[in-house]
Automatic annotation (TrEMBL):
Pfam families found in the cross-reference section: PNTB_4TM (PF12769)
Classification via PANTHER family: NAD(P) TRANSHYDROGENASE (PTHR10160), PROTON-TRANSLOCATING NAD(P)(+) TRANSHYDROGENASE (PTHR10160:SF19)
GO molecular function, one term: proton-translocating NAD(P)+ transhydrogenase activity
UniProt protein name: proton-translocating NAD(P)(+) transhydrogenase
Known EC number: 7.1.1.1
CC terms in the record's Gene Ontology section: plasma membrane
InterPro entries reported for this sequence: NADP_transhyd_a_C
Residue ranges of domain NAD(P) transhydrogenase alpha subunit C-terminal in the record: 8-89
Single GO BP term: NADPH regeneration
Tree of life domain: Bacteria
Subcellular localization, as worded in the UniProt entry: Cell inner membrane
Amino acid sequence: MDESIVWLTFFVLSAFVGVEVVSKVSSTLHTPLMSGTNAIHGIILIGAILVAGTADSTGTLIVGLVAVLLAAINMAGGFVVTDRMLEMFGGPKRTAKSETDGDAA
C-alpha cells in the first residue's frame, strides 16, 4: 500500500473522530476545550517550525512555512475566542463611577 494512502486514511479518520468528539461536548465545556486545543496548537506550531527549519527542498520549505502561518493564525484565533468566551461568563463590569458610588455608601 502506498504510504500517501495510509496518511490520507489517518487524516480522514482523525477528521471524523474530531467532528464526533466536538459535537458531543456540552456548551459549558467549550471554554476548557478551547484552552486545551490552544495548547495543542502550540505543539503543532513547534512541529511546523521544526519541519520548516529542517527542510531540504523548496517544496518542503513552502509547505512548512504555510503550516507555520496557519498554526500561528489558528492558535491566536483560539486565544481570542477563549478570551471572548471568558468575558461572557464574567459578571457585569464596574465603571469608575459605580466604584466611587460604592465607596460613598
